[in-house]
Design a protein that fits this description.
- The protein has about 575 residues and is of the alpha+beta class.
- The chain has 2 domains: about 140 residues, Penicillin-binding protein 2a (Domain 2) (Alpha-Beta Complex); about 350 residues, DD-peptidase/beta-lactamase superfamily (Beta-lactamase, 3-Layer(aba) Sandwich).
- It is built from 22 helices and 21 strands.
- Strands 2, 3, 4, 5 and 8 form a 5-stranded mixed beta sheet that branches. Strands 10-9-19-18-17 form a 5-stranded antiparallel beta sheet, with helices on both faces.
- Strand 12 and strand 13 form a beta hairpin.
- The protein is elongated and about 140 Å long.
Length: about 575
């Protein structure tokens, strides 16, 4: 007999039965104890687990603030819309009817199928943005698996093209992208809120559980300009571009006492509510981004620099015979031989020769230094996105020829806003006030950059421009004294100047006795025969200025005594057009 381990006796069947039963009873007992513990002692655990599966924290979109004109008229408003999104995983599990969904979305079935296939592992995918609430309700009523709606806001611009370049626009997420929408985005943009919601196993919201944080809407902002002035400026500029066959145009109006932008329009424009075919060149605000050589509109500043130097007075004489001036290899010409003229006639007749004589007689740094002080060669500080500084030649370029041409507006570049701002400084008696696109309450102190006596001498000289002896009789406004200056500059092209392309400009102020408004009108490349600033831009100035003064309730200042004293002032017909 072998010596091995003793053989254990097998348990009887009834013994094994009791063992298994005991184990099961013990297991159920443990589960009962655990369930009792969780329900009685540690209830929070089950609650947290349930919440993790059924509750979600949902963002509450904040309403973007409105942009309004100075009178409270809404110019940019955000309206509620619904964006349709899908959970591709859930849609695949729920056997989504892709062709039916494609029809509801007005998209191709193949495109939708491919997009869902590419993003099959994602849990969130936009299908269509910014549907109207009614259209979204119809689509969501079909109860496509995994398809949901999300409330958002879409920006709407009631004035369309009229305010497009000023306001700019927002993107699909209601964030500022251009213009004042971009500049003021931080103030306009609200702070999103949050709430806890209960959703079923399919992700559908059952009810709101709690408000965690209320959404804080953005700030409503009152802008500086009057929508009525903006519209009439846009209308008159558009008509002028069409009538003169021009490529583009700009008009900028400023309040002399506050520095507010009363109107700023450009052509061509675009519709910010429908940007499907928008080209990049249409978006730029030419008034603040496009630089051009201002031509003779710089002559009042040349005269001011001469008066400030002490070498000249308003009665100083200039011999412009024979109507030309040779400066090294540059022959400077007047339109005709004006002979011996005084300072006022220099501006009235727009003499290049007399202006060049001043620049050559002054110290080398005098003229460019004065131009820089008047705001040329640097941004106005308006804060408008993309504002250009213009170009004022550096000191090493201040040679006699450059100084001579600079005196009558060549060899430097400006923006329409810069030009209007500099004229507003003269109109304010030499006080420079910051440009503002926001409404300002009351006069602004500003800083003095030009002696008041010089400014007061310049205004009557510029007033003579709007007479039968001057170059801008068509800038006259019934009942008001107008002071201003024309500019007709050849456009730079291929390192030289084009013989048949011009920038036609008129900048003026009214009423001349106590200026309230400055308006600059720039027409780019008129092609229907006329190109002088006094014939192309001055009539636009007249019509815009007349309506602007009326809307601002500015009293006329052209008295019978004034007309008698200055018989050369133009007679204005009942149609509002200046005549001889």
């Amino acid at each position: 007999m072998s010596r091995g381990k003793p053989v254990q006796p097998k348990l009887p069947y009834t013994g094994r039965h009791f063992l298994v039963g005991g184990l099961i009873a013990t297991l159920f007992g443990c589960m009962a104890v655990r369930a009792g513990y969780l329900h009685v002692v540690d209830q929070e655990f089950l609650r947290k687990q349930g919440n993790m599966r059924m509750q979600r924290v949902e963002s509450i979109v904040a309403h973007r603030g409105m942009l309004r004109d100075r009178n409270g008229l809404p110019l940019a408003v955000s309206t509620p819309v619904v964006s349709i999104w899908i959970n591709p995983k859930e849609a695949r599990t729920g056997k989504l009817d892709v062709p039916a969904l494609a029809r509801e979305l007005s998209v191709e079935t193949r495109w939708l199928s491919e997009r869902l296939a590419r993003n099959g592992q994602r849990e969130f995918l936009y299908l269509k943005r910014h549907l109207s609430p009614v259209a979204a309700e119809t689509l969501l009523g079909r109860e496509f698996p995994g398809v949901y709606g999300k409330t958002e806001y879409r920006r709407f611009y009631p004035e369309g093209e009229v305010t497009a370049h000023l306001l700019g626009f927002t993107n699909l997420d209601d964030q500022g992208q251009e213009g004042l929408e971009l500049e003021l985005d931080e103030q306009l943009r609200g702070v999103p809120g949050a709430r806890r919601v209960l959703r079923d196993r399919k992700g559908a919201k059952l009810k709101d559980v709690a408000l965690l944080r209320a959404a804080r809407p953005g700030r409503d902002i009152d802008l500086s300009f009057d929508a009525r002035t903006q519209y009439l400026a846009y209308r008159e500029l558009a008509e002028a571009i069409s009538r003169n066959g021009a490529q583009a145009g700009t008009a900028v109006a400023l309040d002399v006492e506050t520095g507010e932008v009363l109107a700023m329009v450009n052509q061509p424009s675009y519709n910010p509510n429908n940007r499907g075919k928008l080209r990049p060149e249409q978006m730029r605000n030419r008034a603040v981004t496009d630089m051009f050589e201002p031509g003779s509109t710089m002559k009042p500043f040349t005269v001011a620099a001469a008066l400030e130097s002490g070498k000249y007075t308003a009665r100083s004489q200039f011999n412009t015979n024979p109507g030309t001036l040779q400066v090294y290899n540059k022959l400077i010409r007047d339109h005709e031989n004006f002979g011996v003229i005084d300072m006022g006639t220099l501006i009235t007749k727009s003499s290049n020769v007399a202006s060049a004589q001043i620049s050559l007689a002054l110290p080398r740094e005098a003229l460019p230094g004065f131009f820089g002080r008047m705001g040329f060669g640097k941004p106005t500080g308006s804060g408008f996105p993309g504002e250009s500084a213009g170009l004022l030649q550096p000191p090493q370029r201040w040679r006699p020829v450059e100084l001579a041409t600079m005196s009558y507006g060549y060899g430097l570049t400006v923006t329409a806003l810069q030009l209007a701002h500099a004229y507003a400084t003269v109109a304010a008696g030499g006080i420079e006030r910051p440009v503002s696109f926001l409404r300002v309450n009351g006069p602004v102190a500003g800083k003095r950059v030009l002696d008041e006596k010089i400014a007061l001498q310049l205004i009557p000289m510029m007033e003579s421009v709007v007479t039968t002896d001057g170059t801008a009789i068509k800038a006259a406004v019934p009942g008001y004294r107008i002071a201003g200056k024309t500019g007709t500059a050849h456009k730079a092209r291929n390192g030289g100047y084009a013989d048949d392309q011009y920038m036609s400009t008129f900048v003026g102020m009214a009423p001349a006795s106590k200026p309230r408004v400055v308006l600059a009108v720039v027409i780019d490349s008129p092609s229907n025969g006329q190109y002088y600033g006094g014939l192309v831009s001055a009539p636009v100035f007249s019509r815009i200025m007349a309506e602007t003064l009326r809307l601002m309730n500015v009293e006329p200042d052209r008295s019978a005594e004034h007309l008698a004293q200055q018989g050369r002032l133009p007679v204005v017909t009942r149609t509002g057009r200046a005549g001889a």
